[in-house]
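User: I'm curious whether this sequence folds into something compact or stays loose and floppy. Could you predict its structure so I can see for myself?
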Amino acid sequence: MDKDLPFAIFLMGPTATGKTDVAIALREHYPVELISVDSALVYRDMNIGSAKPDSELLARVPHRLIDIRDPSEPYSAADFAHEARRAMDEISAEGRIPLLVGGTMLYFKALIDGLADIPPSDPQVREAIEREAAIKGWPFLHAQLSEVDPESAALLHPNHSQRIQRALEVFRISGKKLSDLKREQAEEGSVLSPIGDEYQLIQMALLPENRLALHQRIEQRFNAILANGFEAEVRRLYQRGDLHPDLPSMRAVGYRQMWQYLAGQVDYDEMVERGVIATRQLAKRQLTWLRKWPDLQEIYIDYEAGRDEIFENSLANCLKILRNAPIYKGKSR
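Assistant: Here's the prediction. I'll summarize afterward.
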């Protein structure tokens, strides 16, 4: 680490591990300000299904990058990286420490790796690709991508819709391969440099000791979301008339399954089952990311303990890591 660089803290982990509660508690020990790293929390009116902190808490403990987009608007990892970097710089300039908390690992990776200058999205081109996919399927479009940009296609599963769509979109807008653009810009210097060039990073992750216990917690949490009015929340979005299930917002875990129920594609019980399974699959993907994450300090959670004990243990372990780093040790208040 360059000791002259400011600090930034990453607090990561799969869904349902209590990251936000720990991050909020850290404010009582360090001069941190929170930045949300969550692809669902960026959207307004998506509160219950995303487990968004309530308005009273957000007024007391502001989080950057929450409620910054309408659900009709796309939001990408590149959007996040630029906006998070700007927020980090503002927080550091005020003499505070950016604390980035969440589970959208692609967003963290965009900060870690930096970004090349890729053409912005074109709604008409994107819509045309989505229409084609609805008729012919994403494997067909993956085959198309293999013809124009085999290097990008080789890195993608034939059903990885978002990334296939983006690579085809870039080619149709610019006539250039996404793989070539990334290579050229890597040689010229990234438009957004890796965050490690500008900050000393302390990266922590809350991880389950027992995967089965995490699955049980996910099921309990999904049922609690349903009991808290999730169906009514999605119904309001469904009735707006300007949203559809292929939007990034409506592809969020839970929202996709409830949309299918409201559209009459599945019954209620199947919606619940699909929602729980999709959340478990999300947690599995998050854990897969974290197993390969460099410079990560792991904090394991024993779900056999009570809720308060889990929180206290997670907080104590985070504080232990931070106290072993050459970071400001005063209180934030």
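Summary: The chain has two domains: 7-115+193-323, 123-188. The longest strand covers residues 200-208.
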